[in-house]
Amino acid sequence: MAETVGEASRIDPVRVLGTVMQLRKVAYLVLGVTCVALGTAGVFLPLLPTTPFLLLATFAFARSNKRWHDWLLNHKYLGPYIHAFRDKKGLTVAQKVRIGSSFSILLVVSMLFVPQVTLKAGLAAGWLFWLIVLWRMKTAPQPAAAQD
Asked: Are the C-beta atoms of residues 72 and 58 closer than 8 Å to each other?
């Protein structure tokens, strides 16, 4: 009887590893779906970035579900963001305008609430620096899906 109890209490490492791998895939899938939702919201909300969330979703889907990964890469509207980054094509003019506008609005609002002149000057210098960086970035052609 003691041997039966001892045998029943042994942990099968293969089964445990399989369970851990399944949990990892589910976690990556949940992360991917969440990032697609945030990236999609970022298309419409000026202060929420689109591309970083879509890149993270692509990473997560590559580790969890090939079908979802392929769907995201081939998506009519979301796919071009990923391909532009992956192929190092740069930002489209529309993306540059959207980023520059939202960044400018955020900094102007911040400057309204900062009482010190030196901090306002620092914010203005940072704003000018990043606008120059944005302006000097490579400009990609407008994706075909966005031209429709």
From this structure: yes
